[in-house]
Amino acid sequence: MPSRVEDYEVLYTIGSGSYGKCQKIRRKSDGKVLVWKELDYGTMAEAEKQMLVSEVNLLRELKHPNIVRYYDRIIDRTNTTLYIVMEHCEGGDLSGLLTRCIKERRYLDEDFVLRVLAQLALALKECHRRGDGGHTVLHRDLKPANIFLDARQNVKLGDFGLARILNHDTSFAKTFVGTPYYMSPEQMNRTSYNEKSDIWSLGCLVYELCALSPPFTAYNQKELAERIREGKFRRIPYRYSEELNSLVCRMLHLKDYMRPSVESIVQSALLASAVSEEQRKAEQRVRRKSAELERPKPADVPAETAAAVSMATELRLKEQRLQEREQALKDREERLEQREQELCARERLADEKLARAEGLVKTCNLVRQQKALTPLYSNEILGERAESPSPGKKKVHFAGDSKENRAPDRHLKLRNAELKKRLQAATVRAQALDLVERNYQLQSRQLLGIR
For the chain, what is the radius of gyration of the CA atoms? Predict the structure, then answer.
């Protein structure tokens, strides 16, 4: 029996667009929370109606843990409205996540970026190389607003409204569709393109996850098209590894045949751990489904046995969730320890720089004092040379209390004062030289330690 609009309860509206809105709903039969896209097809052109039908058919065929799950469709012919019932993603979309990161001025962890990349690559692999032998599907509108997150922060690829089916591997699409920031050069040039265009969009998306902004930005579409055709962009922040930067650069290569295929991305060493984790989850899902199929129905077993089996299953699921949470906490603790070590190293370097700066300030102050005393020292020497008699002439003094006999005493006092000032100047200069020598020794030890 086909579903009806009355079978669902509308909770609230998530968002709205030109043709309709997206609403959060609850299925009355079992209370499951879902989402439906309410689309008014009465005002659509025939091409748009065909695109809508193709999206519904795609959603029915594409079944993958990283693709938004399709549940049902309801056609209300009296109101010319189509309802597409889909999986509800509690975590929102990547666009909202990027907005929060920009507002909080924080970057995403590289492990999270790699996990998103691995899950999106697996979803695109399902689209590009259909496991059931179906035709290749191009998404053609990969962007943060079309990538959703569930409660466990797993990626769900959605919104296949602009998708196109290719009949065979040599087919090329030529339609000008998509979001300009993530469009490939071949789309900008209005030439034929294939699944490598989705790889370009994936590279733009991963770049934005790292840098919090698209690789190509401009004030108008003409300037944006020129920048995309040039293919020049900044490196992702240096907090991310060189391997990730290299993979992003390969995905954003101007020549589509130089971009990696989705299979090579999945098989890359950079994503080995993330892909193996996804494969492990897939195996667990298969085992869980097989166990549910092999489990006897409640009618065939006593009520107590059925309750015990269900309780044991719930306990196993809780234990599995606890183990996953424990592993996540361990990973987070390791990242925090690594970050603490980096902060300690930065603090040590800052202390060394501060010590060098203080030594330079002391040296500068002593040099200034020395320069201030140097003129006095030179004037005293010149005065002494001017007052001292020539070696060829000798003064003759007579006994008595005459001025000639009292002059040598005053001269000796002045000479003692001059010697004291010269001694002070020499002491200041020695201190300055001592500080300079210590500074050079500190720098030499640091250089030896670096080597």
Answer: 39
Q: What is the C-alpha to C-alpha distance for residues 62 and 81, in angstroms, rounded to an integer?
A: 23
Produce one character per residue of 384-401: b if its CB has 16 or more CB atoms within 10 Å, e if not. Answer: eeeeeeeeeeeeeeeeee
Let me know if 93 is a catalytic residue: no
Q: Extract long-range pairs of 172-175: CB within 8 Å, 24+ residues apart.
A: 173/138, 173/140, 173/197
C-alpha–C-alpha distance, residues 177 and 193, integer Å? 12
Among residues 93, 141, 159, 198, which one is catalytic? Answer: 141
Cα separation values, 245 from 56, 89, 113, 213, Å: 36, 29, 12, 15
Assess contact for 187 and 178: CB atoms under 8 A: yes
Task: Decide: helix, strand or coil at residue 301.
Answer: coil
Distant-in-sequence, close-in-space partners of 370: CB < 8 Å, separation ≥ 6: 425, 428, 429, 432
Backbone torsions φ then ψ of 90, nearest 5 degrees: -70, -25
Name the pLDDT band for 175 (thresholds 50, 70, 90): very low
Three-state secondary structure string covering 8-73: EEEEEEEEECCCEEEEEEEECCCCCEEEEEEEEHHHCCHHHHHHHHHHHHHHHHCCCCCECCEEEE
Asked if residues 229 and 274 have their Cβ atoms less than 8 Å apart, the reply is no
Collect all residues with Cβ–Cβ distance below 8 Å to 313 and sequence separation of at least 6: 291
**Buried b / exposed e across 18-32, counting CB within 10 Å, b at 16+?**
ebbebbbbebeeeee
The band of 267, judged by pLDDT with boundaries at 50, 70 and 90, is: very high
pLDDT digits 0-9 by tens, 77-89: 888 888 989 899 9
Q: Detail the DSSP E strand segments found in 46-201.
A: 70-76, 81-86, 136-138, 147-149, 155-157, 164-166
Q: Are 7 and 52 in contact (CB under 8 A)?
A: no
Tens of pLDDT, residues 367-394: 888 777 766 555 555 555 555 554 545 5
From first CA to last CA, the distance across the chain in angstroms is 78
AA letter at 106: R
Paired with 382 in beta bridges are none
Cα of 384 vs its chain's centroid, Å? 74
Distance, in Å, from the CA atom of 215 to the CA atom of 231, rounded to the nearest integer, reads 9
Beta bridge partners of 193: 173
Q: How many CB atoms lie within 10 A of CB 230?
A: 11
**Residue 331: what residue type?**
D
Question: By the 8 A CB rule, do 84 and 195 touch?
Answer: no
